[in-house]
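debug: dumping io for the single-chain case to check the tokenizer round-trip. Nothing else runs in this session.
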Amino acid sequence: MPPLDFNTAITLTLAALAVLLTALAIMVAVAAWWGFTSIKDEAKKIASQVATEAAEKKLIEFFETEALKDRIKRMMDATKPIEPLPGSIGTPYTEKEDSDHGSADSVRT
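debug: decoded output
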């Protein structure tokens, strides 16, 4: 095998360096993707914990005060039950209603 001239040696050295840098770039990209997904998953977990703790704290504060009882009382006072009309759906039929309006028998007599 003949000895390599300077230009060929430089070309081979630079090609090997390019291959090594490409492999290094791929490894850095994989490490960055792995790190990003790990950070994202951990951030989701921490955010969920913080939100749950804050919601529990607010619910405990709300139910320990009289605010809920006051709101329920105001709602109950504001809404009064409506009396159904006689003979309407949901009210039982009675003989008294029939006698008030006159029955078919009383019309014939």
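debug: round-trip ok. Residues 56 and 78 are 30 Å apart (CA to CA).
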